[in-house]
Amino acid sequence: MSQHPQQPAGLKHAFLLSATSQASLNWQQIEAATSTMPAWLHFDYTDPKSREWIIHQSGLDPLVADALLSEETRPRTTAIGDGVLLALRGVNLNPGSDPHDMVSIRLWADQNRIISTGRRDLHSVKEIVKSFQQNQGPTSPSEFLVELCDRLVWRMSDTVDQLEDRVDELEESVVDSHQAELRYQLANLRRQTIALRRYLSPQREAMNRLALEKLSWLNDSQRIELREVSDRLIRHIEDIDAVRERANVTQEELISRMSEQLNERMYMLSIVAAIFLPLGFLTGLLGINVGGIPGADSPQAFWVVSGSMLIAVILQLLVFRWKRWL
């Protein structure tokens, strides 16, 4: 396990970065262990004990400590001396959560240690913890960074595939589905793609910057791996852009079909109104309450008027047919 039973919850995970020993550490072992070999320390930044240690006992620059404890972060990479400060995000795969509600992780990395902070669980971090528990975890800070970035991007693949499958279904449902429900689903899909794009675009820049930074403990092979991870992230962003464009086109097609249906209904109502307009005028004229109305005293007048109106309707229909209005 990554936490000692008696230690506060603020230290979520702590492992040595060594090929020979990847032991789990507790609060009491941190100082002694990290002074002799590299280690990864992962904290809950909302825990008072964690905040106190990062600010006063970690030896970090105050600017770095503030960044690790910040509530709001945007993906970025900032080199400070021979270390690097990163803020990255991964898709939220926790139960009952939306994947586009991305989970942030903040990291300080140098040749001796990785210090990371977060509040919510991140599946990529859980996978790395599992590899440590099997004594197969990263053996250096640079290897840890490469593996974390790789896992973050791979975890995005399923979410992007789900978005593509969803837009395929919506495109097929434009004709058959209930319009109000389909409009809601399209709006929700566009909202998800916008949220993902908002964080993945700066994360691409952060990973590119990480691969270009001149850090002595990051070798050429690892830089190449980071560039490959960045390329996969770029493909995911392009796929998300394609999904968003397809959703826009599908929504435009839906609006076009709705407008067409509305125009057809309005056209039919106009035809009906045109047919009944002269009939309404005629009945209104004959219905005025003044003397001298023709046929007022004739028992056949009703049938004469009804027949005349029927003939008028037939003539109107013939005229509409001739003008190709029907």
Give structural notes:
With 326 residues, the chain is of the alpha+beta class. It has one domain: Beta Polymerase, domain 2 (2-Layer Sandwich). Helix content is 59%, strand content 12%. It contains 8 helices and 6 strands. The protein has a 6-stranded mixed beta sheet, sandwiched between helices. α5 packs antiparallel against α6 and α5 packs parallel to α7. The longest helix is centred in the C-terminal third of the chain and has 67 residues. The radius of gyration is 35 Å and the shape is rod-shaped. It starts with 10 loop residues before the first strand and ends with a helix. The relative contact order is 0.09. The N terminus is likely disordered.
Structure described in brief:
With about 325 residues, the chain is an alpha+beta fold. Helices cover about 60% and strands about 10% of the residues.
Spatial extent as radius of gyration: 35 Å
CATH class: Alpha Beta
CATH superfamily: CorA soluble domain-like
- CATH-derived topology: Beta Polymerase, domain 2
Strand numbers in spatial order across the main sheet: 1-2-6-5-4-3
User: What profile does the largest beta sheet have?
Assistant: 6 strands, mixed
Shape: rod-shaped
Let me know the number of strands: 6
Taken together, the total number of domains comes to 1
Uncertain runs are 1-7
Descriptors:
rod-shaped, 326 residues, disordered N terminus, Beta Polymerase, domain 2
Task: Summarize the helices and strands and which ones pair or pack.
Layout: E1 11-16, H1 27-34, E2 39-44, H2 48-57, H3 62-68, E3 76-80, E4 83-90, E5 103-109, E6 113-118, H4 123-133, H5 141-172, H6 179-212, H7 220-286, H8 301-322
Parallel strand pairs: 2-6
Antiparallel strand pairs: 1-2, 3-4, 4-5, 5-6
Helix pairs in contact: 4-5, 5-6, 5-7, 6-7, 7-8
